[in-house]
Amino acid sequence: MKAIITDAGFASRYLPITKTIPKAMIPIGAKPVMQLCVEECAEAGIDEIIIVATPNTMSKQIYDDYFHSQSENVKALLEKQGKMDRFAPVEKILNFPKITVIEQDSTLPYGNGSPIVSARKFVENDEAFVVLYSDDLILGEGDVKTLIETYRENPGAKAVIAAQEMPEEVWNRYGMIALKENGTLSHIVEKPKTPDLSPSNLTSYGRYLLTPEVFDYLIPSNTGLDGELWTVDAITKLAENGDVIIARSKGRWITTGDPKNYFMAHLEYVLSESDYGDDVRNFIQNH
Prior knowledge:
Helix content is 32%, strand content 23%. The protein contains 10 helices and 13 strands. Helix 9 (259-273) crosses helix 10.
């Protein structure tokens, strides 16, 4: 199995920091967001990862350096100081599954489907592949594992998409899932303006298992809302011709899509996943 992880675009809401580093390299705890996505793939048994960097930026170079640099100068200094235990996190990065960093094809339309198309040659001959948007993080058991297990249980599926139940007050922010009578995907309603326009309480987000048939619909001429190339439009087309399975997340989805949500995601990660979460919790309670 292979995975495509897409960069988060130019991330204008995060300026000025994103004029220098990709948004997915902003840290959650002591790790960048992108590393947490890679770890989710590694834990699910993915053996090759394609990171699609934003074109005409330093993103590709930064990802290549982070995931491939041997950091011999850092290692030598830590050896000299007798602190080689601190190099263990770097060694973990260097032992990840094969990671290839490519730049998104800048001739493609704007949209979250274009990074997937840019990586087509790496996955088009595979039975299926996983896609992760680096805006989205999963706490607890990762969705990639759940997607793969669900596909193995439904080998004839056109795709599998992750879903999570969300409260009514946020339905207008996300893509809400409409189901067929057999419980598979019918279509996705993007950001319904009022609750009565939402077909369910299930939200779709950036975790998909796709079959190469998706490339029949992810083509530059098939742009949708705002002239963008949307992955969900292609997935809806797959659903018209077969079953797109809904996989309920076994973890907790959090988004880093904007600075406010990033801060809350960072805080939730530290409180639940770090070894200093109790200290932070006590600090908050006492201030």
